[in-house]
């Protein structure tokens, strides 16, 4: 696609995102209120699930979804497996992707698009190859090519390949096709991924580090700057300790020579 044509289509895409998200939020307001009340009644607060994810060009933003799980943690503060925390209401919301509706607010804010690569975990950012990282050249979407082609049934390599394909072949026509497939598959529950999955089953690229400490720290209110500052402080402390150790070793050698 010619650069000029692509830029024009991106502008139209953003206009469509804003208009579509605004209209959907108004029309779906009664449904959003009912879901919020149901969550509050069955699970209490918070009603929304918030988590920091990387968006356009890897910039971090707070993703909003309806909460589908109980707050249950291990002694070390990490959450229990999804299957142990997912509630019956949460399962229903996930089956029909109703838990994703608050992301319309992310679209309105400019964090996301209606259609694009799904926002994944912060931990994956330094693990992408330069080719895979190009998935962040478009705003993340509520739905996307990888989702309608298999969602969580796909291996990570396949998902990222679809994401990069979408970035390279973006067009309004492709967006319309993805939207049509989403509207066809969601009401049937075809995109339902249950209580999540064991990442090891689909992570054929070694992207997942085994823990999601950084994501949870950021989502818990620790800013990226604070983490960077703490990391720098730790590095400086380690450097100071190493320098002090080297100084003591040199001192011992000098004392031995003097003796």
Overview of this structure, please?
With 259 residues, the protein is mainly alpha-helical. A two-stranded antiparallel ribbon has the order 1-2. A two-stranded parallel ribbon has the order 3-4. The protein is globular, with a radius of gyration of 23 Å.
What are the defining features of this structure?
single chain; mainly alpha; 54% helix; 259 residues; two-stranded antiparallel ribbon; 12 helices; 4 strands; globular; 2 domains
What's the β-strand tally? 4
Low-confidence stretches: 227-259
Secondary-structure element order, N to C:
HHEEHHHEHEHHHHHH
Strand composition percent: 5-15%
- How many helices does DSSP assign? 12
Backbone CA Rg: 23 Å
Write a brief caption for the model:
With 259 residues, the chain is mainly alpha-helical. 54% of the residues lie in helices and 8% in strands.
Task: Explain the layout of strands and helices.
Layout: H1 3-27, H2 29-42, E1 48-54, E2 60-66, H3 82-85, H4 88-95, H5 103-109, E3 113-115, H6 130-133, E4 141-143, H7 145-148, H8 156-169, H9 172-185, H10 199-202, H11 213-219, H12 224-258
Helix pairs in contact: 1-5
